[in-house]
Amino acid sequence: MISYFLRSLIDWVFRKRSVGLALVRIGVPLFAVVLTGLTLGVTIPSSQGNYIFSWDSSGSAGALSWGVFIIAIIIVFLGISLIVRDIRSESRKKVIVIEARGLRDYQGQSLASAVPLSIQGRREQVTIDLRKGGVADGAILSPDAAIRRLTNLPDDLARRCDGLDRSDISFVLGGLAPVPFLFLLGVIVDDESRTLIMDWDRRQHTWRALTDEDDGNRFVVTGLDAINTTVKRVALCVSASYDVLEADVQMVESDVPIIKADLVGRNTHSHWSESKQQHLAQQFLDIVMTLAQQGIVEISLFLAAPASLTLRLGTIYDKRNLPRVEVNQYEASDPKRFPWAIRMPVAGLPHAELMQR
Q1: Using an 8 Å Cβ cutoff, are 66 and 94 in contact?
Q2: Does the model's pTM come out above 0.85?
Q3: Is the same domain home to 136 and 74?
Q4: pLDDT one-digit tens code per residue, 51-76
Q5: Which of 59, 91, 123 represents a domain boundary (last residue)?
Q6: Residues near 38 by Cβ (< 8 Å), separated by ≥ 6?
């Protein structure tokens, strides 16, 4: 607790906005004026001569100096009390940092160490290592075991949040893992609490927030007009980084309509805008809601997207009111291209399920 208090105090010193710190910054110079015996003087010229206003903190204006000294003490102590109050308030807040590790066998920088200081509260790192059970060149060898690790997360989060007010809890999400697991992690956490999504910058080799400007590029959606009342299942192909190829999709979904959402100007570095991701997530949600209104009850999702966008799409997927959804895993070396998928715990399904092909 002491180490947290000291770290919080250091954070406050370097924070731009703090009423308490502002008062301390005002009061300390007043101490300097009084204690160093500084003499101040102002001369105002006029037609009748100069008007001179002066104050000698060590001379005849001793009473005034004492008055300034007392005022400085009051200002500084008030500022310190406000800082202590705010730090105590922050100590009630909790930031649960959830990091999924599911690609190469490499530790690297932890997500918790990169969380911005502006996110107030005690950090609690929750690392979900999906690699246990085997990883070969980034491919999960035992996806069912990895699913079981994720299914334990809700109980863990409930324990960590027990007794805390919802307003005092925030989440930070990030991970390097196959798309179905990241989407599932998003579904589990959902968007009912304050959530910051971060991503791994492969060029800078660090975690960072989505701080770039919105370039205005959005999904171009095709195929919705082919849906009729007899269709109950569709394949939804979302290309936000790489291309989801229709020929690959038809290997596992040969007899269902294909809906496409292709991001204009897509590449592996076109996702670093929070505003852009929010708009893309809304587009995705609008597509799914449209499908639900047209009577679709099952969606087979083929998603090629950066980790942060994948997490975001999972968080916004309504667990009760949207169709069942399966998120497919792409493996370029597998002749089926999509050898397995995870059926998400939505639309009445209590637990995530592995679907092998």
Answers
A1: no
A2: no
A3: no
A4: 665 555 555 455 556 676 677 778 77
A5: 91
A6: 32, 57
